[in-house]
């Protein structure tokens, strides 16, 4: 399955690059991200909760960035598995300046979806992915506008449902970044409110989109 | 004797169940299933440029959304052309879900699956499909003119040019003392079963088996189609037709997109999925029939005997041709009816339009053929000033001429050879039944009351019971219960009764002991389907042969036990006895027990068949060579060709010259379907057929506008006749047995509908004196016709007026 698109972000490619590769920002902007845990150089574990219609649920996955050409391109490899299915995705991201203070981000995702979630229809999967992607970019853009200003500390607050795992203090890793996903991404409601207040959205959530699903199994 | 039930008016055994809400129709199955709904094209002809599902995603309970991109393998290919034919040179079929283009309003584009139908419909409503509209062809004349085309690669819109001829028609016409040429039309109608289509599918992921219930007329072939399209082994697919609330032809088409998509979703989701067609869906996405433009040229002599007949039909086949050119062939070959046509040529051009597909609807091209032939007879009579019955009589095939070969090829690929019939007798009975010779007195009486009265008649011959085959299985259980199964399906024809009558009669058992199962591939996997008035002929005979096989085996086993010659035994009321020797008997149920030699006695009856209880020769194996355990037999009936039923209808109408309301005051039917299994059921079939015939003649039409929008796609606007519109029907029977099958029967299911439009057009024309060239006809249309300066007046009306003046 292919998912291609682009977005205009209000910041220079350098700014965008910085934001997109900052785990703390990602944790805040990925729709439904509960926690993002750095497990190695450019590698992350994360928990995502997705709540769009039938494609609903929580899942855990891994993300790894390669081929980094700051500030113009990188490749994201994502994979995950959960009870309802599994997914593997490769996403190529390219940044190009658009005027003085904007960047055109172009993405091209190639995903392989398996398990029952694969049975819900391509339009549905891509429809959800597109929506979450839009939410993600809206949130990223908000980060860019609202300034990289307030450096966000990991907040073990009430709305951070996933607690960082306790690790031996000696180890420099992992670092855990908590997301804002008090509510699952994409639940019905005002998109902007969701994007700004509760959830983020983004390509990484392709995983969550594809795997986190319940398919109306509530009745089972 | 209680068991000789063949020919008796046994009350339908299924009715108590069906009329007290105990029927099990498709929608009664799968209460917890996910529900499917469809986004269907709102345009008659368009390219699809985008499908946006975003707004649907928020609908709570949405489970899946499928479009063409989700179809894989054979499922992504066009639906099958079920009946290929060399003259179908440009066949086209749709895809299960539209692949970039739609060709009629109602074509499925997106399938939505949700927790229930309400949710599914809500989600479907929010899916935005973007179309780019294309030029639309509606109606046979627009297709013929071909200013635009339905399928880009078929610029003339002609799918097939079906052509048959029995001689050189042009010189024969030129040499005829009289000739006539005229053009007439028949409108669209539809089967319109009260239960629409429906599909339920359940996938068992553990043993990888699929069970599909579908409201179909062809469960075995649906099964094969599902297996082929979903790439499943045949043995992992079961298809069952539950109680089916009417078919009338529309459910013989298969696989409908939904019959593939619902199982596909059930497998993909691992959940039960169901779709039940709603009424609007049935109007715009099932099938219609009937529309034709007919150009007729006929040559005849001074006595009204036909010398040559040349017919050119333009047949509207709708957007696709999944059922091939069966309807055109049936029109072409059944048109000749009970008449000797010395030289006949017929061409049927089957043309594409941007409307719902056209496939057989009860009568299946015969009503149109009958309309062409019978209206020709009326015109000949009018020109020559002869009685319409006399002209018909002079052209009839005589009883001495059977078997009568028309030198045509029928819809089953076999010759049109009439096997038996007595058409002069039919006509004689009809005239007596309707009071044909006393009609002038009735006319005067009506005239005195300010009404216009007219009478019309129409005769037909109907090829029924085409092959290739059907099968039957009969098994006697140790309880005495007799299980009967056949693969073809039932849609209300009373098969549970008529098939049971056949078995009760053949086997000599009480009908109460007989249980009939139809249309369940688990019980009988080989079958063709229920269409072309073939169930009684095909499965009836197959079941009779199977019952005879059981009887033979029962007598053999009983003879052994009773130490008698099988030839001296008879079976009556479920007991085998030595003829004329009271007491020397054995119940058939005991024979059934003994037919299966046992080691283990699982119940009291079984003890009799165990190894120490049975006497038997030490020299013979317990199951004889070539024999099989169990008192059962399976047999098949495969006819050499169709058997030809016949009939004659007459209608008396009274027309109010103020409102032009058309009242059918008398409707007479003489019906010959060979030997009759159950006259009550046959009469019921005739009644139902006449009701649909009257509907097709006076009320029903598919009101498409020029954009291909069906404007009367509901029961508010589509006029189906109520009991108040269906006339009282008087029926007389004639029985000319078929020499082609063991029971001597012919089909009866479609007969009643065939001559309706022809007989009523004739009667209306007789009443008003204006030529009726298009059916159906409404009071408004009749009013317009009467006020038209250009409407043709019949010669008969001129003569009548002349006489009166």
TrEMBL record, chain A:
<dbReference type="InterPro" id="IPR010419">
    <property type="entry name" value="CO_DH_gsu"/>
</dbReference>
<protein>
    <recommendedName>
        <fullName>Carbon monoxide dehydrogenase subunit G</fullName>
    </recommendedName>
</protein>
<keyword id="KW-0812">Transmembrane</keyword>
<keyword id="KW-1133">Transmembrane helix</keyword>
<feature type="transmembrane region" description="Helical">
    <location>
        <begin position="194"/>
        <end position="215"/>
    </location>
</feature>
<keyword id="KW-0472">Membrane</keyword>
<dbReference type="Pfam" id="PF06240">
    <property type="entry name" value="COXG"/>
</dbReference>
<dbReference type="InterPro" id="IPR023393">
    <property type="entry name" value="START-like_dom_sf"/>
</dbReference>
<feature type="region of interest" description="Disordered">
    <location>
        <begin position="149"/>
        <end position="183"/>
    </location>
</feature>
UniProtKB/TrEMBL annotation, chain B:
<dbReference type="InterPro" id="IPR046867">
    <property type="entry name" value="AldOxase/xan_DH_MoCoBD2"/>
</dbReference>
<dbReference type="InterPro" id="IPR016208">
    <property type="entry name" value="Ald_Oxase/xanthine_DH-like"/>
</dbReference>
<dbReference type="GO" id="GO:0016491">
    <property type="term" value="F:oxidoreductase activity"/>
</dbReference>
<dbReference type="InterPro" id="IPR008274">
    <property type="entry name" value="AldOxase/xan_DH_MoCoBD1"/>
</dbReference>
<dbReference type="InterPro" id="IPR036856">
    <property type="entry name" value="Ald_Oxase/Xan_DH_a/b_sf"/>
</dbReference>
<dbReference type="GO" id="GO:0005506">
    <property type="term" value="F:iron ion binding"/>
</dbReference>
<dbReference type="Pfam" id="PF20256">
    <property type="entry name" value="MoCoBD_2"/>
</dbReference>
<dbReference type="InterPro" id="IPR037165">
    <property type="entry name" value="AldOxase/xan_DH_Mopterin-bd_sf"/>
</dbReference>
<dbReference type="InterPro" id="IPR000674">
    <property type="entry name" value="Ald_Oxase/Xan_DH_a/b"/>
</dbReference>
<dbReference type="Pfam" id="PF01315">
    <property type="entry name" value="Ald_Xan_dh_C"/>
</dbReference>
<keyword id="KW-0500">Molybdenum</keyword>
<protein>
    <submittedName>
        <fullName>Xanthine dehydrogenase, molybdenum binding subunit apoprotein</fullName>
    </submittedName>
</protein>
<keyword id="KW-0560">Oxidoreductase</keyword>
<dbReference type="Pfam" id="PF02738">
    <property type="entry name" value="MoCoBD_1"/>
</dbReference>
<feature type="domain" description="Aldehyde oxidase/xanthine dehydrogenase a/b hammerhead">
    <location>
        <begin position="20"/>
        <end position="135"/>
    </location>
</feature>
């Amino acid at each position: 399955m292919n998912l291609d698109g682009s977005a205009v972000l209000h910041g220079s490619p350098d700014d965008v690059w910085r934001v997109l590769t900052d785990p703390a920002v990602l944790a805040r902007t990925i729709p439904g991200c509960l926690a993002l845990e750095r497990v190695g150089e450019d590698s992350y574990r994360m928990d995502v909760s997705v709540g769009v219609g039938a494609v609903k649920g929580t899942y855990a996955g891994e993300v790894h960035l390669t081929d980094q050409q700051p500030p113009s391109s990188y490749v994201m490899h994502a994979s995950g598995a959960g009870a309802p299915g599994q997914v593997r995705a490769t996403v190529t991201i390219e940044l190009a300046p658009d005027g003085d203070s904007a960047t055109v981000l172009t993405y091209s995702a190639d995903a392989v979806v398996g398990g029952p979630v694969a049975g819900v229809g391509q339009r549905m999967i891509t429809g959800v992915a597109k929506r979450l992607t839009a939410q993600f970019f809206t949130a990223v853009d908000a980060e860019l506008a609202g300034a990289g200003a307030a450096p966000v500390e990991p907040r073990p607050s009430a709305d951070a449902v996933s607690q960082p795992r306790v690790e031996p203090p000696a180890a420099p890793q992992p670092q855990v970044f908590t997301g804002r996903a008090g509510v699952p991404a994409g639940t019905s409601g005002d998109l902007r409110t969701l994007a700004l207040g509760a959830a983020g959205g983004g390509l990484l959530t392709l995983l969550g989109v594809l795997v986190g699903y319940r398919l109306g199994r509530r009745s089972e | 004797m209680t068991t000789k039930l063949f020919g008796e008016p046994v009350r339908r055994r299924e009715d108590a169940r069906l009329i007290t809400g105990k029927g099990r129709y498709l929608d009664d199955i799968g209460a917890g299933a996910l529900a499917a709904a469809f986004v269907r094209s709102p345009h008659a002809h368009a390219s699809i440029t985008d499908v946006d599902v975003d707004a649907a995603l928020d609908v709570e309970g949405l489970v899946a959304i499928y479009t063409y991109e989700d179809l894989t393998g054979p499922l992504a290919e066009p639906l099958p052309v079920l009946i290929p034919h060399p003259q179908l040179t440009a066949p086209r079929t749709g895809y299960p879900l539209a692949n970039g283009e739609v060709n009629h309003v109602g074509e499925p584009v997106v399938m939505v699956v949700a927790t229930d139908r309400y949710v599914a419909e809500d989600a479907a409503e929010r899916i935005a499909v973007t179309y780019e509209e294309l030029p639309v062809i509606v109606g046979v004349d627009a297709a013929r003119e071909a200013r635009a085309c339905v399928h880009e690669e078929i610029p003339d819109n002609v799918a097939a040019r079906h052509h048959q001829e029995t001689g050189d028609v042009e010189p024969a016409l030129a040499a005829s003392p009289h000739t006539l040429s005229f053009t007439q039309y028949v409108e669209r109608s539809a089967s319109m079963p009260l239960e629409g289509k429906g599909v339920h599918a359940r996938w068992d992921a553990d043993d990888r088996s699929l069970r599909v219930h579908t409201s179909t007329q062809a469960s075995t072939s649906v099964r094969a189609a599902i297996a082929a399209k979903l790439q499943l082994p045949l043995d992992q697919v079961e298809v069952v037709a539950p109680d089916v609330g009417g078919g009338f032809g529309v459910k013989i088409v298969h696989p409908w997109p939904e019959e593939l998509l619902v199982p596909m979703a059930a497998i993909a989701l691992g959940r039960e999925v169901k779709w039940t067609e709603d009424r609007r869906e049935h109007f715009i996405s099932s099938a219609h029939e009937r529309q034709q433009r007919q150009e007729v040229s006929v040559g005849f002599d001074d006595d009204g005997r036909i010398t040559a007949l040349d017919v050119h039909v333009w047949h509207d086949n709708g957007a696709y041709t999944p059922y091939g050119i069966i309807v055109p062939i049936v029109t072409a070959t059944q048109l000749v009816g009970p008449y000797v046509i010395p030289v006949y040529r017929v061409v049927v051009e089957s043309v594409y339009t941007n409307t719902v597909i056209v496939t057989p609807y009860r009568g299946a091209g015969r009503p149109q053929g009958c309309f062409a032939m019978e209206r020709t007879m009326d015109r000949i009579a009018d020109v020559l000033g002869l009685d319409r019955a006399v002209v018909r009589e002079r052209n009839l095939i005589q009883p001495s001429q059977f078997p009568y070969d028309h030198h045509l090829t029928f819809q089953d690929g076999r010759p049109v050879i009439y096997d038996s019939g007595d058409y002069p007798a039919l006509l004689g009975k009809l005239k007596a039944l309707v009071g044909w010779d006393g009609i002038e007195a009735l006319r005067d009486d009506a005239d005195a009351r300010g009404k216009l009265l007219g009478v019309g008649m129409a005769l037909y011959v109907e090829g029924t019971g085409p092959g290739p085959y059907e099968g039957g299985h009969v098994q006697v259980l140790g309880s005495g219960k007799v299980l009967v199964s056949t693969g073809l399906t039932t849609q209300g024809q009373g098969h549970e009764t008529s098939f049971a009558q056949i078995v009760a009669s053949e086997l000599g058992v009480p009908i109460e002991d007989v249980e009939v199962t139809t249309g369940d591939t688990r019980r009988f996997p080989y079958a063709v389907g229920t269409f072309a008035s073939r169930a009684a002929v095909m499965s009836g005979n197959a079941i009779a042969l199977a019952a005879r096989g059981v009887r033979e085996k029962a007598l053999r086993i009983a003879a052994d036990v009773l130490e008698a010659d099988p030839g001296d035994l008879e079976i009556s009321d479920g007991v085998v006895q030595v003829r004329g020797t009271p007491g020397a008997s054995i119940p058939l149920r005991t024979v059934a027990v003994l037919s299966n030699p046992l080691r283990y006695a699982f119940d009291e009856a079984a003890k009799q068949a165990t190894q120490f209880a049975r006497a038997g020769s030490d020299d013979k194996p317990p199951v004889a060579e070539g024999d099989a355990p169990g008192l059962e037999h399976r047999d098949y009936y495969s006819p050499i060709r169709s058997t030809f039923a016949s009939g004659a209808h007459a209608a008396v109408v009274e027309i109010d010259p103020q409102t032009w309301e058309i009242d059918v005051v008398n409707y007479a039917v003489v019906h010959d379907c060979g030997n009759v299994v159950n006259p009550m059921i046959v009469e019921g079939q005739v009644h139902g057929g006449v009701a649909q015939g009257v509907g097709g003649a006076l009320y029903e039409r598919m009101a498409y506008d020029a954009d291909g929008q069906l404007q009367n796609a509901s029961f508010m606007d589509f006029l189906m006749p109520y009991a108040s519109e269906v006339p009282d029907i008087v029926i007389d029977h004639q029985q000319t047995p078929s020499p082609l099958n063991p029971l001597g029967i012919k089909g009866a299911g479609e007969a009643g509908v065939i001559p309706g439009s022809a007989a009523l057009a004739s009667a209306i024309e007789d009443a008003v004196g204006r030529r009726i060239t298009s059916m159906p006809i409404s009071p408004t249309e009749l009013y317009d016709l009467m006020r038209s300066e250009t409407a043709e007046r019949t010669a008969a009306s001129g003569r009548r007026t002349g006489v009166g003046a």
